[in-house]
Amino acid sequence: MTNRKYLPILLSFFLSYPAFSQTPKVNPDRLHESLMKLSTFGKNAAGGSDRVAYSSYDLHAREYVQGLMKEAGLDVSIDFAGNIIGRKAGKNPNLKPIAFGSHIDEVPNGGDYDGPVGSMGAIEVVRTFSENNITTDHPLEVIIFANEEGGVVGSRALAGALSEDALQVVSNSGVTQYDGIKLLGGNPERIPELKRNPGDLAAYLELHIEQGGILDAEKLDIGVVEGIVAIEWWEFTFAGKANHAGTTPMNKRNDPMLPAAQFVLAVNEIVNSYEGRQVGTVGKIQAFPGAGNVIPGEVKVNVELRDLSSEKIWKIYADIEARGKQLALESQTELAIKHIEVASKPALADPEIRKVIQAQAEKLGYGTKSLPSGAGHDAQEMARIAPMGMIFIPSKDGISHAPAEYSSKADIANGANVLLHTILELDKLLK
Amino acid sequence: MTNRKYLPILLSFFLSYPAFSQTPKVNPDRLHESLMKLSTFGKNAAGGSDRVAYSSYDLHAREYVQGLMKEAGLDVSIDFAGNIIGRKAGKNPNLKPIAFGSHIDEVPNGGDYDGPVGSMGAIEVVRTFSENNITTDHPLEVIIFANEEGGVVGSRALAGALSEDALQVVSNSGVTQYDGIKLLGGNPERIPELKRNPGDLAAYLELHIEQGGILDAEKLDIGVVEGIVAIEWWEFTFAGKANHAGTTPMNKRNDPMLPAAQFVLAVNEIVNSYEGRQVGTVGKIQAFPGAGNVIPGEVKVNVELRDLSSEKIWKIYADIEARGKQLALESQTELAIKHIEVASKPALADPEIRKVIQAQAEKLGYGTKSLPSGAGHDAQEMARIAPMGMIFIPSKDGISHAPAEYSSKADIANGANVLLHTILELDKLLK
């Protein structure tokens, strides 16, 4: 009998030797170290990240990231939109690249994981390939997108969907997208030239924190993203008659606050009455004139619906609209409805890629769940031009866009391993 | 048989001859003309009045009013607070004056009746006394109060309740009360000297438009005011957990919008569940952060209650508070309640004066109704130092503080007649 004491050491030696390893894995410590280093760029006193796009924090962080990408063996360049592109040749130059990445910019006072996990994860995957002497058939392309939080600017540019007007919008750092892109080393005038067309990429993959509490609550390791939900907004305005709150008897009032309050409850009830994972939110309500001593003349209620199916959103909306009209009729108020353009179409993940992610995660022994992404991502834009897949990892308590955003070192490594094996599997499947 | 054709003419001649008239009456045309002339000071393009206190419109109107008062035989002066005081001696110099009046300043873009009806009505009563050779036993005092709409400044000064801090408040015309009072010819430094004490006046009477729609809707001529209601304000804050409206599933939400909406409906239901004329209003509701794509972390709801009885207000409030706490408990939100000081105590009309107003209105053949005043008035301040009575006339559709504010010539004359006869009756009763 072999002394069991030495077995793990022998096993570990055996598995770490590239040629014999059946399941190459990322280095959790190295990956985490790069994330922690990245988090120092723009760390504020509250423990949050002020690394908004185009800020000096962003610029310095991008230098650090380019260094890492070069060390990993990537050929690094900045495209016209300011995206950092890291290329690695494949064995077959006739194949289209498999692209993967995320972003490193944050919302003001944001966290350290939303974007960085997928960015550092992508680089770690390439490092792992290099040290395991793995060369894929497909070329690989790591993309660190410009200004995700301020309008998915870099990915929208790649998808050919960034308008000239959007370039004039002032971003969180105080400069326009136009000027910001120049700060990143891009050339906003030439953005139309970088548009990729469907077929230019074999696939686009993105690892990201869930930004919801489902995986964390259910103690699962990996979320297989079904797609990124569509978002629709409406503003419901109930109009009655503004009047003196002291001199107008209760039975002489035409107070729109009452149907508005009933409507808020109706929205919730109707959204919950459907099976599925749709969400509906009243995040904003306002009375006009909005004084404690005046019966309001108008109350505005904002309704947001999200689902993977636009059709389902509009079905639910039809119920909400009918209920709103009924409440207005009953209360003798006037109802005006405005549909607010938020230009957010659903982006479904590619079914084949979803299957691969699912299978690889299971092979690695991780607990998985298929779920929609309620938040927007660069992957949503990339889905316009490439088969898309997204891998989620747990986000503690579902908190994001805040200093308390947190994912564990183990969860991050798990996600990067799923990304790595999904790339390897797609490299075999996509020819 | 007398030819009936001439009877009305003979009768009219007989009644119009002062010495024989049992019921002296004001001159409706003259009264209305003075109101229309007053309305020219500060009339704006929208048809509203911009005669805010201390404006040049106010200053010019005050000159016009002082001229009318002198013509009516009043001895006119300006007190330290800028109130216009018109005195007429009575037969018995040992009696305390019967005071009556109102204000001529308006809210920005206000109407022509709120204040002017009582002011011009008071002067018309004195004119009518003069042309009917009526001299009361009591001295009479017509008071045109300074800046009613900007904080019942003049009446509060007379009642000794105007704080030094209040003098530093900037009024609608853009100057402080302190500087404004100087513009009126007052002396803000010496305001403490003009305080009247209980017993200094025999009574205070005020004619005013209802500012509510009750008399107009019920086609009644005169409102016998029971008192001016107390006002209490509270701010209810329901706190849940702000979260991403896209990534947070419906069953993982802690959304304070829902108990807040239920609470709005509960306030209305509870206020209506009591007998009486109390009113309760939610005029203001706000969600924080208040974005369409964020589940609110907090929703603030403002509650106002008004009634003639403070005790009843607090009884109703106890129900509202209990319901609010129950809704918070059921929804697992935190509830914080803040009582907001609006310093508005109830001011009851003197029961004897109410009876006199009621009797005189009936004698004159007017339809009457006892009702509370839901709005504040100078009479509320004067009630601190004198037995108070108020006479309301109909206000079309209950509109006030707006260009559409309107009372008819006949209604205004009716109100002035009731004021006149109430003064004559009190002159007999109060010794």
Task: Summarize the structure in short.
Chain A has 431 residues and is α/β, with parallel strands linked by helices. Chain A has 13 helices and 15 strands. Chain A is 35% helix and 22% strand.
3D structure, described in words:
The structure is a homodimer of 431-residue chains. About 1% of the residues of chain A have low confidence. Chain A has 13 helices and 15 strands. Chain A is of the alpha/beta class and 431 residues long. Chain A starts with 6 loop residues before the first helix and ends with a helix. At the A-B interface, strand 8, helix 9, strand 9, strand 10 and strand 11 of A face strand 8, helix 9, strand 9, strand 10 and strand 11 of B.
Q: Let me know the average pLDDT of chain A.
A: 93
The biggest chain-chain interface is:
A-B, 58 and 59 residues
Q: Uncertain spans of chain A, ≥5 residues at pLDDT below 50?
A: 15-20
Order of helices and strands of chain A: HHHEEEHEHHHEHEEEHEEEHEEHEHEH
| Main beta-sheet annotation of chain A | 9 strands, mixed
What's the CATH superfamily of the largest domain in chain A, by name?
Zn peptidases
Helix proportion of residues of chain A, in percent? 25-40%
- What is the CATH architecture assignment of the largest domain in chain A? 3-Layer(aba) Sandwich
CATH class of the largest domain in chain A: Alpha Beta
What quaternary form is this?
homodimer
Total beta strand runs of chain A: 15
